Amino acid sequence: MLSFILGGAPITNFLNYNYEVSVLDPKYDDMLKSKEFLAKFDLYFEKDIEKTIVVRNSKEIMGTGSYSQNVIKDVAINSNYQGQGILNTIISKLKKIINNEGYSKIFVYTQPANVEKFKYLGFKEITRLNKYPVFMENSIKGIQYSINQKKEKVKKIIYNKFGSENLDNYDIASITVNCNPITNGHLYLIKKAAKENEIVIIFVLDEDLSLFPAEVRYNLVKKATSDIDNVIVIKAGQYMISHATFPNYFIGPDNEDERNKIFAELDVKIFTEYYARALKINSRYVGEEPYSPVTAAYNQALKKNLPEYDINIQVVKRKKNKGKAISASTVRQYIRDDKIDKVKSLVPKATFDYLKSENSKQIIEKIKNNKTRH
Amino acid sequence: MNRLRRSMLYLPGNIPSMLQDAHIYGSDSILIDLEDSVPLSEKDSARILVRNALNNIDYGDIEVTVRINPIHTDFYIDDIKAIVLGRPDAIRVPKSESAEQIKKVDELITKIEKENNIEGGYVKLMPMIETAKGVKNVHEISEASTRNVALTIGGEDLATDLGVTRTKGSEEIFTARSLVVMAAKAAGIDALDTIYSNVKDIEGLKEETKLIKKLGFSGKAVIHPNQIKPIHEVFNPTEKEIKESKKIVSAAKAAEEKGLGAITVNDKMIDYPIVDRAKKILSYAESTSK
Amino acid sequence: MEINKASSVGTLESSDVLISIQPENGINIEIESDVMKQYGDRIERIVRETINYFEIDNIYVKVQDQGALDYTIKARLETSLKRASESK
After folding, report:
1. Residue C58: which domain range?
2. What is the pTM of this model?
3. Cβ B37–A88 below 8 Å, yes or no?
């Protein structure tokens, strides 16, 4: 009678607990009961939650699950109703909603206890921290595929430039940048790394949540470094400081130390287990972070975790202009204030030319009307 | 004589392994479910899976029935459109409350049978009485369609509708059960009882089955294979009953051959209804012994 | 039929199959199965026939088979195609 036991418990769904499934919107609906329910599992609603699925019967909440963009999180099932397909119901609905929004990849943060169940629903584990979360994805072309693509690209470029495509033969460093837009501060960091290593790979973040679109940022970095022979610029992809791997970077609850720490660790773990391993990266360069607590927390996580994987971390002091560290946010502020000419000494030619060109008009308008950090 | 419906095994419609193994458990029918065991966002995938299963799996002599979604939902139309193409023996209509609903379902099935060269009237119906309103209208429901072959009662939902809890003694649904039997028998169709939710309590299951057999039900729905045998044991005629019936039937035959009007067995006069019942028991015994 | 979003149907339970599809140029089929040797070709054939039947020219299909029979593969695939071509 094995098939009548699914996930360790008899199938009793026909008994019709008269449950109902509702979709709550944190902007309008009363989330109090759901909050209390989640708290029992040591979870709480993240600020970026778009919608929450709640399955309840006349007595109580049986289970819940939420999402933000294509990331499922805050999933919890009442222990009285385990093994009854409630998780299946919730995830099934969330997958549909997320696919309908146009996403092909779906991520989830979950507790270790639910990992097997998510595997049945087609999720594969990417990595995990000790207690929470386990980070999983449901994608046709997952992280392994993505990393392999990047590896092939890098190998090709290196082969063309240096003759051997065996990455073990090189001293490879990496820098992860947003470059919103690329400044002389960034360039300083890049040039230093390029001097001290045989090859420097620059990962440009792919998220389009910054004022300068990802494509523009990427192209500017490429242009600005085109004269540095041993620099390779590639797109970071969805698995590096993205809304999926490090949401706090974007939603910026700057004073949530604990959460910053957790997500930073997770992202760094992905970097070391996938990117660094595949691309044979032996050191990572970062600019010192005087302004953002989130970035500072991230650098802390790097300092803590990279040595465990034998990866060198190099924290480089920011280049100064007139006593102040050059930062992209300063550049954006000048743009906001219509003082583009003041920007000239702070950015590479590529960036300045772009700001002066027709192509940047829309973006400049956007910056002027915008008050966000990014 | 109606086909045997002593036990009907519920199966979740969206799980392939269960649809495939269904017939090995020995129930008289299977009840493939598209309603409560299938989450809302999987209704579409379940109905296509079931349609395909019906068309590809050989269930032998088992009666294959499918429980669609209730008429007040958006799903039942697509359910019927897909499922009829698989030619199930019958469709269970949950939360039936009026003759009009059953007629609607009947018409839709007829339309699809016609469009697809399926023998008209092939797919039968089993309205489910699960609400007070359903009980109130049970007679008109039972007569609403020539496809009706059984009336069934859904105890869990009924209790909820009545605002009471289900108990081991089931007093709360006693009257409803009787009314369902009345209506079924008046319409010349079977009455089938609700599930027994405590799968570990076989004794309790047997007690309840004895009760509903007394009331006139022909069978009971089942949610776990180990409920099947106990239910069959209750419904099957005992050795004693079979012996008695054989006596009565042969006495009736002998009386007929001799042209006698009265039949006696053990010096007692036997009326024709008793002979009928004896014949039924023997024919029942024959089918259950297969 | 035009595939305009991703969808996935089914599970990795025994006898089931998980079909994931997303828009992509051309017809791309990826199959994972414990019985690739014996059934890989057959599974691919079923997928191609179904895709042809629905007149789809551009799609990426990933099949994770757990010993599903033909009727299950067809059912999950059909459902996932319908979901991926629905308008919002």
Report:
1. 7-85
2. 0.80
3. no
